[in-house]
UniProtKB/TrEMBL annotation:
Its cofactor is Mg(2+). Belongs to the PanB family. It comes from Nitrosomonas communis. SUPFAM superfamilies: Phosphoenolpyruvate/pyruvate domain. One of its GO terms (molecular function) is 3-methyl-2-oxobutanoate hydroxymethyltransferase activity. Its EC number is 2.1.2.11. The lineage of its organism: Bacteria, Pseudomonadati, Pseudomonadota, Betaproteobacteria, Nitrosomonadales. This is 3-methyl-2-oxobutanoate hydroxymethyltransferase. Pathway: Cofactor biosynthesis; (R)-pantothenate biosynthesis; (R)-pantoate from 3-methyl-2-oxobutanoate: step 1/2.
Length: 263
């Protein structure tokens, strides 16, 4: 039996930290869940780490479906969250539902959509019709050209208030989880306190319900730029298994992320 939304909500309510990692294939799916990873995120970061693109923008629905099927086949315990790729959730609630339904049919238990208040109508439409949604705010990599680079978000008072407002409206619209990327830790902590749903952080400090990293970053094998929030867990270990177990342990004990991974 897989971990469900209910399991995650209970872990969050009990104050038990949730460990998540990105995953794109069957072998790593088995390894990660056996090392105690609770959530496997089939991220559109596969555009970077699997396909060698410099952004996530070229990733397609077919790419996401293929990698979701691989991850689902390789696992039987972990919760499966899947990114909606660029261009598949922006046009209308109806079209977004059609695309999300294909990811659910491939084995997703929740889809993740980048965007704040602008996505609330779509999120309401999906969640009312049986598709759980995680919203992704802060640094939204699909908006890299609009944002002008991979930069910390929510640094000004105005931006911070807007993100908090987005978070409240997203929860009201029905999201099951909220992911926050590369925002000040104090802001992520405040948003996490204000919400009742679990929050997932990447570069958002230790006070989120869950932590996530790109697998290839935490194994120290991604050849591109290493974001400050990524820690190489292979340092000091001699196996991938041990590195993943160490990551899970550091998330559960709130040792990761430390100050040097935080803004
Ligand atoms: N391998 C990989 N890891 C990721 O975390 C990731 C991807 N790919 N692809 C999609 C996006 C892009 N991401 C990124 C990429 C770079 C930074 C980065 O370099 N950030 C600066 C912040 C600079 C500032 O202070 O404003 C940093 O120092 O970490 C952050 C997120 C996160 N996602
Ligand atoms: C970095 C995480 C949050 C993500 O969205 C991805 O891997 O695509
Ligand atoms: Mg993504």
């Amino acid at each position: 039996m897989r971990i469900t939304r209910d399991t995650l909500q209970k872990m969050h309510a009990a104050g038990n930290k949730i460990a998540a990692l990105t995953c794109y294939d069957a072998t790593f799916a088995a390894l990660l869940e056996n090392a105690g990873v609770d959530i496997l995120l089939v991220g559109d970061s596969l555009g970077n780490v699997m396909q060698g693109h410099s952004t996530t923008l070229p990733v397609t629905m077919d790419d996401m479906i293929y990698h979701t099927q691989c991850v689902v086949r390789g696992s039987n315990k972990a919760f499966i969250m899947v990114d909606m790729p660029f261009g598949t959730s922006q046009v209308s609630p109806e079209e977004t539902f059609m695309n999300a339904a294909r990811l659910m049919a491939a084995g997703a238990q929740m889809v993740k959509i980048e965007g704040g208040q602008i996505m609330t109508d779509t999120i309401d439409f999906l969640t009312q019709r049986g598709i759980p949604v995680c919203a992704h705010i802060g640094l939204m990599p699909q908006s890299v050209h609009q944002l002008g680079g991979y930069k910390v978000q929510g640094r000004t008072t105005n931006e911070a208030e807007q993100l908090l407002n987005d978070a409240m409206l997203l929860q009201e619209a029905g999201v099951g989880m909220l992911l926050m990327e590369t925002i000040p830790a104090t802001l992520a902590a405040r948003i996490s306190r204000e919400l009742s749903i679990p929050t997932v952080g990447i570069g958002a400090g230790v006070d989120c319900s869950a932590q996530v990293l790109v697998l290839h970053d935490m194994l120290g094998i991604y050849p591109g730029n290493k974001p400050r929030f990524a820690k190489n867990f292979m340092v000091g270990t001699d196996s991938i298994q041990a590195a993943i177990e160490h990551y899970v342990q550091e998330v559960k004990t709130e040792k990761f992320p430390a100050a040097e991974h935080t803004f």
